[in-house]
């Protein structure tokens, strides 16, 4: 048995995508397809991490930006909560 897309080029592409989704759902790989957490990026990626914990499609680009923002926010919060004079 084989899945063979038919129809116009657009319909064949859509059928091929849906066929791959069906196969991914049945073989257990669907849960590894994710969207990058970086709001400006939101690229789809396949999480190859051992424990399925990936959240950015590119740790060096998107992950670094997110971690830098979080670090700056923590630093700003600590500075705002620090007593006057040091």
Structure explained in plain terms:
This protein is mainly alpha-helical. The protein has a single domain, classed as Jann2411-like domain (Jann2411-like fold). It has two helices and two strands. A two-stranded antiparallel sheet has the order 1-2.
Features:
two-stranded antiparallel ribbon, Jann2411-like fold, mainly alpha, 2 strands, 7% strand, 86 residues
Give a quick precis of the structure.
By secondary structure, this protein is mainly alpha-helical. The protein is 49% helix and 7% strand. It has a two-stranded antiparallel sheet.
Tell me, what's the shape?
A: elongated
Please give the largest β-sheet. Answer: 2 strands, antiparallel
Adjacency order of strands in the biggest sheet: 1-2
Look at the structure and give the CATH class: Mainly Alpha
What is the domain total for the residues?
1
Number of helices: 2
Beta-strand percentage? 5-15%
Cα separation of the termini:
73 Å
Helix content: 40-55%
Low-confidence stretches: none
Which fold name is given in CATH as the topology?
Jann2411-like fold
Note the run of SSEs as H and E. HEEH
SSE class: mainly alpha
CATH architecture: Orthogonal Bundle
CATH homologous superfamily, by name?
Jann2411-like domain
Average pLDDT, to the nearest integer? 86
> How many distinct beta strands?
2
Pfam families: zf-CGNR
InterPro entries: ABATE, ABATE_dom_sf, Znf_CGNR
Protein name: CGNR zinc finger domain-containing protein
Organism: Streptomyces cellulosae
